[in-house]
Amino acid sequence: MRILIVDDEKLTRDGLIANINWKALSFDQIDQADDGINAIQIALKHPPNVLLTDVRMPRMDGIELVDNILKLYPDCSVIFMSGYSDKEYLKAAIKFRAIRYVEKPIDPSEIMDALKQSIQTVLQHQAQQDSNVLYAKEAVSRFAQRLTHNGYDMKSDTLIDDAVLRGSINNSTIFTTCILRIISPYNVIVDRSNLSSYLENFDKQIAKWHLNEIHFIKNDSLIVLHIYGNERPEESVVSKIGTYIKSVIPIELNYFITFGKTVTGPSKVFDSYNSAAILLQSSFFFDYGSILIHKSSPQSVSSIYPHEFLNDFTEAIREKNFLRARELVETLYRSLKNNKTLLTNVIKDMYYKAFLQINSVQYDLKLQTENAVSDSESMLDNITNCIILNELHQMLLAKIDRFEEKLQSTPKETSTIFLIRDYISNHYGDYSLSIKDISDHVRLSFSYLCTVFKTETGETLNQYITNYRIEKAKQLLSDPRNKIIEVSSRVGYADNNYFGKIFKKIVGITPSEYREKELGRNTSFYVLKKK
After folding, report:
1. Quick one: residue 164, left, alpha or beta (phi over 0 = left, psi -120 to 50 = alpha)?
2. pLDDT of residue 316
3. HTH araC/xylS-type domain: from which residue to which, for each copy (predicted)?
């Protein structure tokens, strides 16, 4: 807190400064002047919280000084000192709301009481100011949020008055809504309660282009800014605003910046906000840190679903042609980047199926982990949590890399076991698949075949066939388009009831229960209509 002591007698000033414990009163800055004119010069450089001044001084007396100081700083607290007790000066002290009129010679206890009261008054004024600022700030935030409602009518809205904005916003005001979405990586902690701090000097920056702004925080991750002025901003200005926002966001954060279309009048702000929100949805196809600006005539792009990808990718994975698999994934990525009309969930579903194909082949080759179910759940969570297409793309490439590494590091099984597994993977859907069929294929006797397989793998051939069919059934049941009776048929069971018994024996639940459980996890990708 700062105090300015004004008295033409140096002895008085020095005595006050030397004999009062200013630090105990919370004063950390003490200025002094010998008359009113010098006091004003000091006050212009260092605004005082408290003014302790003599009344009668040369050049400018205390009454005139206080008049000038209160015009500059209305909340400054005043204490008069004087050896004269005439009524006119007392009336002046009352007029200027002086806390205390202290007579000379000064009584230390009396001046201490006056200073304490002055401090209390200053603190009350500061608290009231803080409260007023906070109230106005909250009103501005609520008003900014209200502008995003369709059909907003400014005439009947008193909130604009609480926000003290009616003088600067009218039906001719030009608005452009900007949305800043903050996405914090898993290893970065963000104080979401203080997101506005990133834009602390934003209003000063855009004032260069004769623009103002109001904003609000939505869902702890979005800052919605309504940038407004009397003239339509050029696209180059909008781009510069986006670049400035980028410059103030911490480098460790991921984010997107979108600008909606420019509109006229508060009632049209919804259109600007809505177009910015739509752009934000398309941010899935862009990299973090992108600035997306609404175009009045966007280029029309046809929605082409890459139907052949999954078939070609599955074939490449089954043939262990990893170079071909990566080429297909890269081609898919480029195709999707240039085709922004596909729904995000459709794309995630496509990638999810690609991951499942890799898991399926790994299972066939006994490369799948023991925690196959939890691995699938984790994979689904990771896909669901992907914010941008590139994250999906990198995840799938990494999955292919891990598959290839596993394959290369796994001891090669005998050619006989490989032929057996390969034959089963191609014929597990045949109702009539038998051990005799397999023995004929590998040219071994029935008994020798069973002995070799059990010795090499640790399980009987019948167990392997049954487990293989059930794993395939689980994959098919995860897709709601496959009926349960069709699933049993596709995995080699002519009798649906028998399939159900075997499935429950191995999995622990019925096929329908398993489907319900799986679809509960996959709601990000499928929408089911209950009949």
Report:
1. left
2. 92
3. 418-517
The dihedral sign for the CA sequence 470, 476, 481, 486: negative
Task: Please give the structure tokens belonging to residue 398.
Answer: 């990494």
* In the predicted structure, residue 271 carries a pLDDT above the cut 50: yes
The mean pLDDT value for 84-105 works out to 66
Taken as a whole, the chain contains a residue count of 531
**How many helices (H) and strands (E) in the chain?**
21, 10
Among the listed residues 433, 421, 526, the one whose alpha carbon sits nearest the alpha carbon of residue 477? 526
Cα 60 from Cα 38, distance rounded (Å): 9
Predicted confidence (pLDDT) at residue 521 exceeds the cutoff of 60:
no
Judge residue 276's burial from the number of C-beta atoms within 10 Å of its C-beta, 0-12 exposed, 13-18 middle, 19 or more buried. Answer: buried
**Residues 355 and 399: beta-carbon distance below 8 Å:** yes
Peptide bond between residue 105 and the one before it cis (omega within 30 degrees of 0): yes
Three-class secondary structure of residue 6 per DSSP: strand
How far is Cα 468 from Cα 405, in angstroms, rounded to an integer? 23
3-state helix, strand, coil in the chain (%, to 5): 55, 10, 30
Pick from 45, 82, 43, 76: which is nearest to 61 by CA?
82
Residue type, 518: E
Please answer whether residues 223 and 274 qualify as being in contact, where contact means their C-beta atoms are separated by less than 8 angstroms.
Answer: no
- Rounded-to-integer distance, Cα 503 and Cα 514, Å: 10
Q: Which of 119-133, 287-301, 368-382 has the highest mean pLDDT?
A: 119-133
| Alpha helices by DSSP H, 84-222 | 87-95, 108-146, 159-162, 202-206
Using CA of residue 23, residue 29, residue 33, residue 39, what is the dihedral sign? negative
Tell me the longest C-alpha to C-alpha distance in the chain.
130
pLDDT in tens, 421-451: 888 988 999 999 999 999 998 888 999 989 9
At 303, the pLDDT band (50, 70, 90 cuts) reads very low
CA–CA distance from 455 to each of 52, 141, 425, 458 (Å)?
Answer: 101, 73, 20, 6
